[in-house]
Amino acid sequence: MLLEKYRIQESNDQLLPAHRQQFQYIASGVKNAENIIQKLTDFQVAIPSWALGAGGTRFGRFSIGGEPRNLEEKIEDVGLLHALNRSSGAISLHIPWDIPGNAASIKALAAQHGLRFDAVNSNTFQDQHDQEHSYKFGSLQHVDKAVRRQAIDHNIEVIRHGVELGSESLTVWLADGSCFPGQLNFRKAFQHTLDSLKEIYAALPDNWKMFVEYKAFEPNFYSMTVGDWGQSLLYANKLGEKAYTLVDLGHHLPNANIEQIVSLLLMDNKLGGFHFNDSKYGDDDLTVGSINPYQLFLIFQELVEGMDAKGMNHANDLGWMIDASHNVKDPLEDLLQSVEAIKIAYAQALLVDPKALDAARQENDVVKAQEILQNAFRTDVRPLVAEARLRAGGALQPLELFRQLKTRDSLIKERGLKTVATGL
Ligand code: RM4
Ligand code: MN
Ligand code: MN
Q: How far is the CA of 65 from the centre of ligand 2 (A)?
């Protein structure tokens, strides 16, 4: 489904007077409003190809209707999001859920929607019907060399697909680990995984990055072979300068201080990118910013401060992706909410005056330091985010417009009620 430009225009025209007022009010109180708007415009968040259908849990899955039936339709859905918010200009593919049949035409279709291909993701956590060896007891860690070989070859094939599409990074997330004490020799599992990753690393093109994503538990519940940022960093350091740690916000034990992890990885040039989502208990994959928006802000505050300290480009030097999927919302509405939450947290972080914060820290003025952060967090930056969207040609209110246009109904008419997108 294509969204005609005039629809956005019409809706914006109506909303413009109220927006102008709100924007002028906030812009007059912010020192660097123009600078922030430019940064917001440049900042794009990749949409995962596996989050465009309804997500399921192990108890059930409730289809939303009109789900994309193939990769082309997934690209159209991301194109729709991008047309509305001008901030979702990339798609991240999961192989083999989304194998590009004809890479050239897939690439051309994406380009029509102004999309590029972000990291490609391998899948060695499920068995495919035509595969020779099972991943039941792991993939890159497996005791059997033939299984490891198969998993390595799969990753190399994923890189090949990515090259054809213009991706520049591979994300490796492993379900490998053990469910019971005694099941694994931890050192051997680590060593096998490292050796396997080395072979995959060797197949990376020069300009590529490898992201090693960690996860504390699930689907293995006693040990995970890449279980936390320490283990991921061990692999990344041993692999070389193209290997980085990827932080998925839902992959920590409860109450972990993610912002501190982010800060230190960044300090050591080993932070590769993000999978944004939110959670209350585990890898809940809930809408970004829906449970703990303050934590999201604190993470962005560390990112902005840490990247600026290194002269990094906020938009391009790290991988920004959403990784969420669940049962009860329209996935497109959910993604619009997620991207908005990310931009709000980013804008708030850009409000923080690093010199003032540093001065407060030097003085051990704990109260002042907290005030500086919370003043930024409590500022309503939504008009700044909306202004950036407006200038980029997006909708002032993407979610409302999506609803007004009855987009889901049109998708159901076009694709049917019973379609099921590949993914989780
Ligand atoms: C995992 C992890 C990976 C994602 C899969 C689908 O929990 O977050 O990044 O690719 O789920
Ligand atoms: Mn993830
Ligand atoms: Mn996850």
A: 25
